What does this fold into?
Amino acid sequence: MAFTGDFLCTSFKTELLTATHDFTNGANSFKIALYDNSASFTAATTAYTATNEVSGTNYTATGQALTNVTPTSSGTTAFADFADITWSTATITARGAMIYNDTAAGDPAVCILDFTEDKTASAGDFTVVFPTADASNAIIRIA
Amino acid sequence: MIKQALVTGPLSPVMVQTTSGRGFTVDEIADRCMERLMLVSRDAPPVIRDQAVAFKDSMRQAVVYFMAEAVKSDRTSIYNILMNNGQPEAANLILKEL
It folds into this structure.
């Protein structure tokens, strides 16, 4: 199997309506984990898994904690954002990532990110750059 | 009757940047920084858009300058950490590689 695109997990949408997630800075801790192309995530993915998670120099299993920016709105669209994240001095090859809530029980998944091709850092930096935090581009938007 | 549904928007793609055998340069990080600081709409009136682009360029120069200063200053800190721990060769290498 392989990555087949970006997905906002369906379970996450349900969990928004049951107050599972709090994106306020300093509230819930969200993490990003990297995966190889053997991972087969879809919108039906519900939680973090270590299966097919990458390994490499300066990559720790379960990934890194994200810095979440407190949600805001523009016009009629509300959105949440994360600061870009870097694995420094790392040797990693990853095809995609999962953002999940490390605070909530069961590590529920938020979204699946498809890098569209293998990305490799070799004794270098591996950075995930999040889209512009506005009503049209932010990583998580409710319109 | 509810006429408008509450929907989550489509997921915007992330971008991945990597390096091999080095870290990011000040210029590479400055480009990322500017995308965060300021977005100039392509639909803006030309006069306003040109002013905004000029301002963005000017801001970028300042960002590059101060980031380079921060890197140099951090090298000074690392130099002293290495010297204080009996690693003068590595300490001097840190300054040469700047």
Notes: Chain A has one helix and eight strands. Chain A touches chain B through 39 residues (CB under 8 Å). The first helix of chain A runs from residue 10 to 16. The radius of gyration of chain A is 15 Å.
